[in-house]
């Protein structure tokens, strides 16, 4: 390891889901800070670097970074990866989709969270930051304000399981010395997005985005992916200084620019060369 780097007294962290959309951005930001040894853990068996990831390639060659293939359901492997680290950034779990059955999703999201929490306690990890979602409490804004309570009834299986995992992380705060918090970004977008933008592009190709169901006045928050990565850095610093108002709490992360969802979608599609919505479809319940 470069002697100039060891003089910085670097901290060791693990980025679980470090090859995901937000995870990549967080890894890059941590390496740019220069005072971190970063363990990137993900379900991908081999690490394939894009040409834009030269900083990570350099860090791997100088031992400032390392990569671990990880099955989050293997509790012994999770503990092995976390051993010796002081901070865990728990990002989105790869390989989860609505095509999976409930049991598979439960193992990856909820049991995975239990494994990470237990490994943090066993390995004396000091701080655990969980990347959750604003959808665990509500879908849309009411008068520009998000609800902070979990929903009693959830139609989305994955969101319901993620809410369960978040609750486990927050309940584990200050047990065996582990300080935790959760971040709830809303509708994350940006270069490399694999969910939000691709989903609406697929709809646009089939012509479904020409229609708005209802009046289209529902407000939503949106978050640029780099802002989410920055929020994780801020959360770690706050927990490091044992800020009472942060430990065991959940925080919404947004661009502070709530928009009507149809306005955001129109700007997105027009920027990518697709047609703006044309028709509003209103359904009336007959009694």
UniProtKB/TrEMBL annotation:
Keywords: NADP, Oxidoreductase. The keyword Oxidoreductase applies. GO terms for cellular component: endoplasmic reticulum. GO terms for biological process: steroid biosynthetic process. It comes from the Eukaryota. GO terms for molecular function: oxidoreductase activity, acting on the CH-OH group of donors, NAD or NADP as acceptor. SUPFAM superfamilies: NAD(P)-binding Rossmann-fold domains (SSF51735). The keyword NADP applies. Residues 14-278 form the 3-beta hydroxysteroid dehydrogenase/isomerase domain. This is 3-beta hydroxysteroid dehydrogenase/isomerase domain-containing protein.
């Amino acid at each position: 390891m470069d002697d100039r780097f060891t003089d910085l007294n670097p901290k060791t962290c693990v980025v679980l889901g470090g090859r995901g959309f937000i995870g990549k951005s967080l890894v890059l930001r941590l390496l740019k800070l220069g005072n971190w040894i970063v363990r990137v853990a993900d379900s991908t068996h081999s690490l394939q670097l894009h040409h834009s990831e030269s900083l990570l390639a350099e860090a791997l060659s100088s031992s400032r970074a390392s990569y671990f293939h990880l099955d989050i359901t293997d509790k012994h492997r999770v503990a092995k990866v976390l051993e010796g680290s002081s901070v865990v950034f728990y990002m989105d779990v790869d390989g989860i989709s609505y095509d999976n059955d409930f049991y598979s999703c439960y193992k990856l999201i909820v049991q995975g969270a239990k494994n990470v929490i237990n490994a943090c306690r066993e390995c004396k990890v000091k701080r655990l930051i969980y990347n959750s979602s604003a959808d665990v409490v509500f879908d849309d804004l009411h008068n520009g304000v998000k609800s902070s309570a979990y929903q009693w009834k959830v139609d989305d299986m994955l969101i319901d399981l993620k809410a369960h995992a978040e609750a486990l992380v927050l309940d584990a705060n200050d047990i065996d010395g582990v300080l935790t918090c959760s971040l709830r970004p809303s509708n994350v977008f940006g270069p490399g997005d694999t969910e939000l933008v691709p989903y609406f592009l697929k709809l646009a190709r089939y012509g479904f985005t020409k229609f708005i169901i209802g009046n289209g006045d529902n407000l939503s928050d949106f978050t640029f992916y780099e802002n989410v990565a920055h929020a994780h850095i801020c959360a770690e610093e706050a927990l490091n200084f044992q800020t009472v108002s942060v430990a065991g709490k959940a925080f919404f992360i947004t661009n502070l620019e709530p928009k009507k969802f149809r306005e955001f979608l129109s700007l997105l599609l027009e920027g990518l060369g697709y047609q703006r919505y044309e028709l509003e479809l209103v359904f009336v319940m007959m009694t």
